[in-house]
Amino acid sequence: MEAKILSYIVLWAMVAFLVSASDPSPLQDFCVAVNDSKAAVFVNGKFCQNPNLVTANDFFFTGLNIPKNTMNPLGSVVRLVGVPEIPGLNTLGVSLARIDFAPNGLNPPHMHPRASEILTVLEGTLYVGFVTSNPDNRLITKVLYQGDVFVFPMGLIHFQLNVGNTAAVALSALGSQNPGVFNIADAVFGSKPPISDDVLTKAFHLDKNVINYLQAQIWTDNHIY
């Protein structure tokens, strides 16, 4: 019964994002991405498969039920399912991600420039939150349990932390086929080439030695591409 309820919750989440996707509406039924430019037209940055050659497999992906290895410094891993995995998603304005957390695992502060996100907890307990824009910079947080749903507005910094004693799993629907992601620490202190010390010392009110230390760290990317 509990599994059935969770299935309904996840289905509701997917339907909600199909209704409110942020990408532009397509001008045709679908545009299955293909690499052969001679047999296609160009839409949304991808070549479209000839509709007469499209099959069910162009709209299908399997394996999201398989846990991913969380043995990294963050203790989390994000598996995004987008157009590379499901070519039929091209132009449809949605994508999906599975997030696995080890105990105390963190999906660090990050943002999606092109998508809002709706997260459903499948297993475990997560402390989640986001920060509103200037000038308030208000922190909005919630502890989520199995079956709970939480929304992260587009472009706002947000995070998820496993505060339970066991592994946790969440499923996120995103309102873009290519939501993009910026891990804040990685973007600021791990940029290539590095941001000038003069900029960062003034922006963060930190000593230059601290900035140099932070820039020397290896910032973990917990996404599977």
From TrEMBL:
Mn(2+) binds at residues 110, 112, 117, 158. Oxalate binds at residues 107, 112, 117. This is Germin-like protein. Residues 62-212 form the Cupin type-1 domain. Keywords: Apoplast, Disulfide bond, Manganese, Metal-binding, Secreted, Signal. Residues 1-21 form the signal peptide. InterPro entries: Cupin_1, Germin, Germin_Mn-BS, RmlC-like_jellyroll, RmlC_Cupin_sf. PANTHER family: GERMIN-LIKE PROTEIN SUBFAMILY 3 MEMBER 3. It comes from Nyssa sinensis. Transmembrane segments: none annotated. GO terms for cellular component: apoplast. GO terms for molecular function: manganese ion binding. SMART domains: Cupin_1. Belongs to the germin family. It is found in: Secreted, Extracellular space, Apoplast. It holds the Pfam family Cupin_1. Disulfide bonds join 31-48.
